[in-house]
Amino acid sequence: MSSTPNHRHPRLTPETLAKLRQPILILQGEQDLCFPVEDVADTVKHFTGSQGLQFHTVPDGPHLLAITHAPSVINMMQAFLLKHVRPPVPPLPIDFHSALSYASSIACNPEIASRDPRAPDAFSLLDEEEYKAGATRFENMKRRGDKCKLDLPMCFEKNDWEEGAAQQRRWTWSRRREYAQQRQDVRPMSVLSLGDGIAVEVERRETTGRTGAVGSRATVDARRSDDEEDDVPPPVPQKDFGALRIR
Question: Is residue 171 domain-resident?
């Protein structure tokens, strides 16, 4: 076992190492300062039960031989693996009934052996009561999740003019006055939109004279965008129709 004080003891006893029957390959660098070669050689003596133990010391090899001495490490690993290659064994057909019998012995439940192996829960070790309890618990959690709602202020709340927008009919030119009347009280009139836009500028002048006339003029700026061809904002107010000038 390694006596280097900066490493934790693996808690492997010589008796435990002697129980290993598999082939073992150990490659140790001669200049390894973490694990001295003497400690590794002393550990190798305890692999008495291994069939095909190989221990190689790489000259001038430091720690992490796979990085610093990759060619020599690869050659030794290939030789070790080729020495223990076994001929391929033909695959055996899967015996589901034997698997169910083994599962029933593990769960101490003889009813598992009589299940249909094609059922999705055939190899479940839960009995019927535990299965129903789990399904009930899942349904309760699902219902609780449906009732829970993330509380983000002003995130899920709709403005007044958005209420019922999905159920309303699409704007058309023939229904433009009705459309404008429905939204006059809840939504401010916008001068531009993503579709066809009409900008209204109302100029009012008052002059003092003999007639005491008050003049007003409204200018309309009509623009069309390519994004929307059908959506047009509400029309110009009725009171400004008489003084419109198109520019």
Answer: no
Extract the tokens encoding 237: 């107010």
State pLDDT tens for residues 23-46: 999 999 988 888 888 989 998 999
Sequence-ordered strand ranges (E) for the chain:
25-29, 54-58, 197-206, 214-223, 244-246
Handedness of CA 222, 189, 176, 230 (dihedral sign): positive
SS3 assignment, position 196: coil
Tokens of 23: 């082939």
- Residues 115-121: contacts with CB under 8 Å, at least 24 apart: none
In the 8-state DSSP scheme, what is residue 61? Answer: -
Q: What is the pLDDT of residues 190-242, one digit of tens each?
A: 444 444 445 555 555 555 555 545 455 545 454 544 444 455 556 666 666 66
Is residue 182 within 8 A of residue 193, CB to CB? The reply is: no
Q: Answer whether 207's CB lies under 8 Å from 215's CB.
A: yes
How many domains would you assign to the chain?
2
Measured in degrees and rounded to the nearest 5, phi and psi for residue 216 equal -140, 150
182 lies in a domain?
no
Rounded Cα distance between 16 and 12, Å, is: 6
